[in-house]
TrEMBL record:
It comes from the Bacteria. Its cofactor is [2Fe-2S] cluster. Transmembrane segments: none annotated. Residues 1-102 form the 2Fe-2S ferredoxin-type domain. Belongs to the adrenodoxin/putidaredoxin family. Keywords: 2Fe-2S, Iron, Iron-sulfur, Metal-binding. InterPro entries: 2Fe-2S_ferredoxin-like_sf, 2Fe-2S_ferredoxin-type, Adrenodoxin-like, Beta-grasp_dom_sf. GO terms for biological process: P450-containing electron transport chain. PROSITE patterns: 2FE2S_FER_2 (PS51085). This is Ferredoxin, 2Fe-2S.
Amino acid sequence: PKVFYTQPDGTERVVEAVAGDSVMQTAVRNGVTGILGQCGGELSCATCHVFLDGGYDFPPVSEDEDDMLDVAATDRADNSRLSCQLVLSDGQEVHVTIPEAQL
Ligand code: FES
């Protein structure tokens, strides 16, 4: 899989990912700025907030994810997701935009 990360200023970075990793883990491992993932994917921080650019085959937002998105540092939008919940599969190409602030 590949993840295309767009920063708030429009800069894009493409990262080769490993299937089974989340969009959050892929960002943290590759030093993509703006995705913190402070809780390590436990749905208790919302510092992995992203805007998912397009329709992808991910499970819908769970109740816990929905609650955390409400307290994200940058206001949520219709396409907001917590990137620790976006687990990549083979061949997938995912585009996300990183919000202005995570804290
Ligand atoms: Fe904490 Fe995603 S890493 S909610």
